[in-house]
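Please, structure for the following, as tokens.
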Amino acid sequence: MVIFGFLSLMVIRSSDEKPSRGHKKRERTRRQLVAAGLEVLAEKGDALTVSDVVAAAEVSNGTFYNYFADRDELIDAVAEHSLLSLAAQSAMQTAEADPAVRFATATSMALGRAMSDPTWGRTILRLSDHRRSSPGEMRRYLREDLATGFDQGRFVFGPDDVTLDFVTGLLLMTIRRIVRGEAGPGHVERVLARALRVLGIDEAEATSLVEHVFADRGRPTSS
């Protein structure tokens, strides 16, 4: 997953025209459908149906198909919304040029979000298994962050497949442990420190970076 590359993922929409009332209504309805999709996907996973979503959103089938061609297109929208919303939060919290700090910040935000919002965590796990959840795109951003860290001499490993698999696998398995209630106190901090160590940050600095990001954000807690 690419939660680590979120700092690279900023979608900026600008327009000289003030949105019309109809446009605002369409945007509101689309957000309503995406929110319903997020809720249903977390509960039912790949068994999600259009009927489930329209029931949760309290709209008609016809309204759904005004916005999405099918359930897979909705799931893609849910994935984009979930990841980009965290991207925006991450980018707002740090403009740090050091790739190790960016990595630590984005990772702590992702794992902290799973701790405070298990529904989000379950959804990320469902999306990671879904055939159209764009894992290639997500890994692309992680690859860019790893490449930057390697080029600057901060990481000892670049964006090879082994490193990508390690980082994405570690994140997903940690989120899985979190949503199962198996992550005890300090688990997220230990995961982040271990990831930094594997990437080549020495123990003292890894410990300091973990303390730094959690001092800024606060320790993650379960909802």
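The mean pLDDT is 80. The two ends are 23 Å apart (CA to CA).
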